[in-house]
Amino acid sequence: MDNYNELKKNYTIHGRAVSNRFFAQAMEINRAGDGGSVSDAIVERYRQLARGSWGIVSLEAVSVTPESLARPNGLMIDEKNLDGFKRLVDAFHKENESSLLIFQLTHSGRQSGSFSRRVKMYEDEDDSCQVLTTDELSRITDEFHHAVRLAAMAGADGVDIKACHGYLLGEMLRPANTREDGYGNDAMGRTRILREIFQKASRDFPQLILGSRISLYEGIRGGCGTDGVDELIENTDDIMDSIALCKEAGAHYINVSAGIPAVTPHVTRPVKSNSFFLNYHFRYQKLVKEQFPGLTVIGSAYSSAREEGPMLAGENLGKNYVDLVGFGRQNLADPLTPRKIMDGNADQVNYCTLCGGCSRLLKKHDPVHCIVYDNEDKK
Ligand SMILES: Cc1cc2nc3c(=O)[nH]c(=O)nc-3n(C[C@H](O)[C@H](O)[C@H](O)COP(=O)(O)O)c2cc1C
């Protein structure tokens, strides 16, 4: 099928060869060991994804500090855990030399668990978290720089600076962030941490692929994808200004997402009853590609279309609306998806049923697995 052929085509990002267009989106499985360390279960999960021949795999969210864990068993990168991350990268590349592995680095901000430190960028009605001070934001920037260095030492092919889904750097991008201390107000202030990370990383680790996952529209008042503090309706002009600044600072790609899973989950991951929202994801990907032809655009939410996902992904690739196609829930349902499709065995793929089981496990802070297809040993 022609559309499947689009998925098989190779690609180049920042001089690195990507063997096909399948991108495994970050999926937290809440299975780290003590202190956010890499456990055997985590290594095994990424070994499976390597076996599945995804062009690029994004490691699930890795906190840059113990203060910002969103899940009790979330990953955290520091010197103590570095050997575990090296072991993970080695196991991944031993399984598949051509797949690339990027680390998603995050500060969870107000999405941090009650067992961590819940903080926010600006004053609002949520009094369960404190507004970060200017000094704290400067320290958080240093924590990101340090995490990038550790990721490079571990052998990551790139880093994704998470700025989506309501986590700290995503909150920072919002028009509602009117801080006047250089970390808010205009697009320069609201992208400051992202820009500083990209600038320093490009200089110190020129080999790394750099990018960010951004919610084009969050669906909340004053959120990303609106153009004012009190605006609710979508206008992507403002978020495009932020993307332009990230590109200028050294980002090679933008991973286009939408919504805030804790607030507007149906926007981030369309389910059966609102699968129409997938068309919005496609439109956001196309908008970014049109505006920034030189930037690699990774699309999200393709699992929502179930068995039609790969065909729609191929269509969007063929029309040059997107460069790499991201599957989240599908990579949990069947980590071997790309291998099966590229070998002509699309009928053998276990397609995500959109049952919401993985999201419910994550919400309850249980270890995450696919409740439909996983065997007993993964549970
Ligand atoms: C259990 C679970 C864990 C997730 N973990 C992450 C994560 O670590 N980082 C991230 O950016 N998105 C995360 N997401 C969002 C997915 O990457 C993806 O954006 C979403 O599922 C929609 O895409 P899909 O239709 O392909 O699943 C997670 C989603 C689920 C359901």
Description:
- By secondary structure, the chain is an alpha/beta fold.
- It has one domain (2-374): TIM Barrel, CATH 3.20.20.70.
- Helix content is 36%, strand content 15%.
- The chain has helices at residues 2-8, 40-51, 82-95, 134-154, 168-172, 187-190, 192-204, 237-249, 265-268, 277-291, 309-318, 329-333, 337-342, 357-363; strands spanning 11-13, 16-18, 22-24, 56-63, 75-76, 100-106, 119-120, 130-131, 158-163, 209-215, 253-257, 296-299, 324-327.
- An 8-stranded parallel beta barrel has the order 3-4-6-9-10-11-12-13, surrounded by 7 helices.
- α2 (40-51) links the parallel β3 and β4 (56-63).
- The longest helix has 21 residues, at 134-154.
- It is globular and about 55 Å long.
- The two termini are 36 Å apart.
- The relative contact order is 0.14.
- The mean pLDDT is 96.
- The structure holds flavin mononucleotide.
- The site of flavin mononucleotide has 27 residues, from β4, α12 and α14.
- Flavin mononucleotide is lined by residues 25-28, 60-61, 104, 162, 164-165, 213, 257, 268-269, 300-304, 327-330, 358-359, 362, 368.
Question: Layout of SSEs?
Answer:
Elements: H1 2-8, E1 11-13, E2 16-18, E3 22-24, H2 40-51, E4 56-63, E5 75-76, H3 82-95, E6 100-106, E7 119-120, E8 130-131, H4 134-154, E9 158-163, H5 168-172, H6 187-190, H7 192-204, E10 209-215, H8 237-249, E11 253-257, H9 265-268, H10 277-291, E12 296-299, H11 309-318, E13 324-327, H12 329-333, H13 337-342, H14 357-363
Helix pairs in contact: 1-11, 2-3, 3-4, 4-7, 7-8
Bound molecules: flavin mononucleotide.
